[in-house]
Design goal:
mainly alpha, 0% strand
């Protein structure tokens, strides 16, 4: 089966699913790998996983066992575990094109987790091992485009935050200016009230200071005293005299 060119899945070729193994020493390993391959083709991925693990119990360094176990885990969306198995396959002696395929599938596990930078680095390694791999080239371009969009979105988020901070700063400045204007107006109003109150006090009639000298005041008091004495004497004159006799009526 040919590898899917889309980034969302990695499928082994039939030849990769049925790697040839050394005959004598690897008979048990080959048996379980073949069994796993049949189960894989039927999309029985959990069963295939169990078979490949049995193969690896007999030969932990099997390139085929690790690679195919990685595929069965990938199909179960267990990408971290699949990535580890592909890495184990790369540690075993292998052909260059098989190493390129392992790198390609590692790139796909990063792609599924939206780890664009890691997938880009891995696809580049796959292309270095196999420059003719168009699927790896396509996925590399896709991952690069997604990374670019991610960075733009993050940049946009940063710009939005900066704009919000700027707007808040401007609002705070405007609020402070409005407060200062209100304080100034309140101060002017208070000063005007004080001025109006003072003006009202100034407009009220005030007693005029006396312009009499001490001698003039003394003479005025003496004159008033004499005038009072004369009034008393006149009053006494009106009450003096003989009483009026009442004539008898007989």
């Amino acid at each position: 089966m040919k590898k899917n060119i889309l980034h969302t899945i990695s499928i082994l070729t039939a030849s990769l699913l049925a790697f040839a193994l050394p005959a004598a020493a690897q008979q048990g390993t080959s048996k379980y790998i073949r069994q796993g391959n049949e189960q894989y083709k039927k999309q029985q991925y959990a069963d295939a996983e169990a078979s490949y693990k049995k193969a690896l119990e007999r030969n932990a360094k099997s390139m085929e066992g690790n690679f195919n176990l990685g595929n069965s885990l990938y199909e179960q969306k267990r990408y971290d575990a699949a990535r580890q198995q592909y890495a184990n396959a790369l540690k075993a002696p292998t052909r260059k094109e098989n190493a390129a395929d392992a790198m390609y599938n590692i790139g796909n596990t990063f792609m599924e987790d939206k780890k664009w930078e890691e997938s880009i680095a891995t696809y580049k390694k796959a292309l270095k091992a196999n420059p003719a791999d168009e699927q790896a080239r396509y996925n590399l371009a896709y991952a690069q485009e997604m990374l670019k969009k991610q960075q733009q979105n993050q940049g946009g988020g940063k710009d939005n935050k900066e704009q919000k901070d700027k707007d808040k700063q401007q609002k705070d400045q405007q609020d402070q200016q409005n407060k200062d204007k209100k304080d100034q107006q309140d101060k002017k109003d208070q000063q005007q009230d004080q001025k109006d109150q003072k003006d009202q006090q100034d407009q009220q009639p005030k007693p005029k200071p006396s312009k009499l000298s001490q001698e003039e005041a003394k003479r005025l008091l003496q004159a008033l005293a004499q005038q009072e004495k004369k009034l008393q004497e006149d009053k006494m004159k009106k009450t003096k005299g003989s009483p009026v006799s009442v004539e008898k009526d007989w």
